[in-house]
Structures are given as C-alpha cells and as structure tokens.
Design brief:
46 residues; mainly alpha; 2 helices
C-alpha cells in the first residue's frame, strides 16, 4: 500500500522533474520520484 507524503524540493530539481513528465518519461511527479528513489536505493551498500 502506498503512503501519501509531503516534501520540499529545490525549484530547479522540480522543474527538471516536470520536464521529464512533459516528455512522457514519467507518468507524473510521484512516478518519477519513486523510480529515482528505487534506483538510488539499489546503489547504496550499507
């Protein structure tokens, strides 16, 4: 089950994300942020 969150993000980063949504790379902001978080999670070794 997905949970709703609120976050503060840099204006330039949000603009980049919105551009990727406009280009149909991501379906929406949530999709883009979730995709990028999962990719980053895969690269972190603890």
């Amino acid at each position: 089950m997905k949970q709703r969150v609120t976050l503060t993000i840099d204006k330039d980063l949000l603009g980049w994300l919105d551009g990727k949504v406009d280009e149909k790379i991501f379906a929406n902001r949530s999709h883009g942020l979730e995709f990028l978080a999962k990719k980053k999670k895969q690269t972190i070794v603890l």
